[in-house]
Amino acid sequence: EHRVGQLTKEKAALIAQLEDAKRSLEDETRVRQKLASEARNLNSDIDSLREQMEEEMEGKSDLQRQLSKANNEVQQWRSKFESEGTARADELEESKRKLQAKLNDVEQAAEAANLKVGALEKAKSRLQGELE
Fold it and tell me: Distance from CA of residue 28 to its chain's centroid?
């Protein structure tokens, strides 16, 4: 009987240990399932972020191409206007020089005409003086 009592106690202890092991296994299983679920969610987030990053990189690449194209166009326009502007400035300088030369000629002619008018007026006065 003593042996039966002892075996009953051992059986009860083993049953308690078995129940503890089952609970522990269930807890670990729940934790493992929760971690697996979180891992799936994180992998999904990583995939989503990776796709978003690729889209952003494509957008950045497109913007860099557009910027490069715009800078090239700006450089072309700048070169065109600088070369045309220089040519136009040279033309304007040449026109200014020619007009200045014409102005000098006209001023000299006007001065000569004024001197001639003055001489004619003196001659007129002298002739009028002689007539009287």
Answer: 55
Query: What span, in angstroms and rounded, lies between the C-alpha atoms of 112 and 132?
Result: 30
Number of residues assigned to the chain: 132
Identity at 52, one-letter amino acid code: Q
**Which residues are CB-contacts of 76 (< 8 A; sequence separation ≥ 6)?**
none
Q: Measure Cα distances from 27 to 24, 52, 93 in Å.
A: 5, 37, 95
**Alpha carbons 132 and 126: distance in angstroms, whole number:** 10
Which residue in 49, 48, 44 sits closest to 36, CA to CA? 44
Return the DSSP state at 7.
H
- 62 alpha carbon, distance to own chain's centre: 12
Residue 1 DSSP SS3: coil
Does the pTM of the predicted model rise above 0.85? no
Helix and strand numbers (H, E) in the chain are: 1, 0
User: Which pLDDT belongs to residue 119?
Assistant: 96
How far apart, in whole angstroms, are the C-alpha atoms of residue 109 and residue 101?
Answer: 12
What pLDDT band is residue 131 in, cutting at 50, 70 and 90?
A: confident
Q: What CA–CA distances, in Å, run from 58 to 41, 44, 50, 53, 71?
A: 26, 21, 12, 9, 20
